[in-house]
Amino acid sequence: MNEQNYRKGGYFRDLGRALVKGDIWVKLSTLLMGAGYFARKQIINGILMTLVEVVFIVLCVFYAAPNLAKFGTLGTVQLEQTFDPVTMQSTMNDYDNSFLILLNSVIALFIIVVFVLFYIHNIKTVYTLQVRKEKGLHINSFSEDLRALTNEKFHITLLTLPAIGVILMNILPILVLVAVAFTNYDQNHMPPNALFTWVGFRNFKNLFTNSITVTFGYAFKKVLGWTLIWAVFATATTFIGGILLAKLINSKTTKWPKFWRTLFIIAIAVPQFVTLLLVRNFFADNGIVNTICTNIGLTGFLQNIGLVSKSLTYIPFLTSPGWAKFTIIIINIWVGIPYQMLIATGVLMNIPEDQIESAKIDGASPFQIFWKITMPYILFIQGPALITDFVKNINNFNVIYLLTQDVFVTKDQLLANSNAKEVDLLVTWLFRLTNEYYNYKMASVIGIIVFIICAVFTLLSFTRLIRGNREEDFR
After folding, report:
1. What is the mean pLDDT of residues 257-261?
2. Residue 435 burial (C-beta neighbours within 10 Å; 0-12, 13-18, 19+)
3. How many Å apart are CA 473 and CA 377, to the nearest integer?
4. What are the angstrom distances between the C-alpha of 194 and each of 61, 185, 406, 452?
5. Number of domains composing the chain
6. What is the torsion angle, in degrees rounded to the nearest 10, for the CA atoms of residue 337, residue 343, residue 345 and residue 350?
7. 203 is a domain residue
8. pTM listed for this prediction
9. What string of DSSP letters covers 257-303?
10. Residues 276, 284: Cα–Cα separation, whole Å
11. Where does a domain end: 158, 180, 202?
């Protein structure tokens, strides 16, 4: 079997073949990772592999083992303070910190998994060197391997730092988040003063349970429903509004297009949190918008048709569930359309003019051209961005939180029992559970649900978008 056929084998099949057909140096590499390199006169590679193995053993003995030994219980020694009347100082015992044990154990397990994969790769690489030597093929020296990292393997060099960043900033926090979801980590079990432990799937069960004492099931359905409604409306309104605004500004009949485009660009330049906080004050119960509505008689009209309670002297833009949801969507249109307008402008400028001219010659109306040519082209170009916007809106913390925090108060006791509000998205509910109520276990469960929803939607949507070759349709 030549080297090319060997490389086409299965991952574990290659490992088995290396262990069975490998020479004494391949087998010694299972004990000393650098042995196979030393035999092929790759001294530097051998030293590096040996150092990796030594560092791993030291980490296992002094870091992984002490933490993993407590991983099953997450600690058993409670914090205790003893006052010494002689020294007039308080001393603490050698207590366990459940969160540090959990965090260090997850990191230790991750290191072990990475090392196992690296260990397997090393054995297969050593066997590849054996095959190349038996075939009389050239074996790269250490300097040649280094030069390869700036030539044919330059992609590895470029991706190394980003990959490490993704691991540290994304993968490890997600693993810790998943682990916390299976514990009772909350305000009553707060390290270092108290310990928390494993509770299995109890938190997931509570999220879908609705009883006298546990109302998370009721709150979850309400919040999830509003989250999906908000994501659909927030994405669709800004997307369609941005396209229509771009079409209007770029129309040949529109005067001063640069002026209008500049006005909307200025709206983007203002920090979003400043805009949202100002708008929140505008739409307050005693804000300027309510004053104007009262003066022009709109408040009275809405009272007469039943949209505003007659006991109120204002429109509850941000204090009533229905009105607050409607107002939030409208304000998001104001905030989001300028950005979508800029993107749509760039796309519209690249629509093939020959298709539009051909449609006009065939007698197509402006609406038919827009619906049959412009929209399909925009959806083809902006499809991935549209999916990203939908996922972003599911996690759109700023708009919801800045508009409703300290303004909206829920009157639904079942929601209040679960620390949720009618206007909460899953992400703002998660934030409130952690930042205000220290209910980390349920926040972690909700975080996992959000991740699953976003991942499933993204995978399904991208699969449909990239299926087939549609580029020929727009040439």
Report:
1. 82
2. exposed
3. 9
4. 27, 10, 31, 31
5. 2
6. -150
7. no
8. 0.82
9. HHHHHHHHHHHHHS-HHHHHHHHHHHTSTTSHHHHHHHHTTHHHHHH
10. 12
11. 180
With cut-offs at 50, 70 and 90, classify the pLDDT of residue 54. Answer: very high
Name the amino acid, one letter, at 180: V
Regarding whether 265 and 139 lie in a shared domain, the answer is no
Q: Exposure pattern of 72-93 as b/e (b: 16+ CB <10 Å)?
A: eebbeeebeeeeeeeeeeeeee
Alpha carbon distance, N-terminus to C-terminus of the chain: 47
Alpha-carbon span 314 to 254, nearest angstrom: 38
Range of the domain at 437: 210-283+318-474
| Higher-confidence position of 158 and 30 | 30
In this structure, the answer to whether residues 259 and 329 fall within a common structural domain is yes
Tell me: do 460 and 346 sit in the same domain.
yes
Residue environment code for 189-215, b if the CB has 16+ CB neighbours within 10 A, otherwise e = bebeeebbeeeeeebeebbeeeeeebb
At residue 314, does pLDDT exceed 80?
yes
- In the structure encoding, which two tokens stand for residue 94, read together? 């050698």
Cα 207 from Cα 210, distance rounded (Å)? 8
Task: Looking at the structure, tell me whether residues 145 and 230 fall in a common domain.
Answer: no
Structure tokens at 148: 């390869």
- The band of 472, judged by pLDDT with boundaries at 50, 70 and 90, is low
The dihedral over CA atoms of 432, 434, 440, 442, expressed in degrees to the nearest 10, equals 10
Q: Check residue 92 and give its pLDDT.
A: 80
* Per-residue pLDDT at 1: 45
302 found inside a domain:
no
The candidate with the shortest Cα–Cα distance to 437, out of 452, 453, 421, is: 421
The predicted structure's pLDDT at residue 473: 55
| Measured distance CA(45)–CA(51) in Å, rounded | 10
The stretch 245-251 carries a mean pLDDT of: 84
Residue type, 351: I
Residues 392, 334 share a domain: yes
Instruction: State the residue for tokens 């996992």.
Output: 448
Same domain, 57 and 165: yes
C-alpha torsion sign, points 299, 304, 307, 308: positive
Domain boundary among 141, 165, 180: 180
Q: What is the mean pLDDT of the chain?
A: 86
Look up the CATH number of the domain holding residue 395: 1.10.3720.10
Specify whether 400 is located in the same domain as 442.
Answer: yes
DSSP single-letter state for residue 436: T
- pLDDT for 12: 77
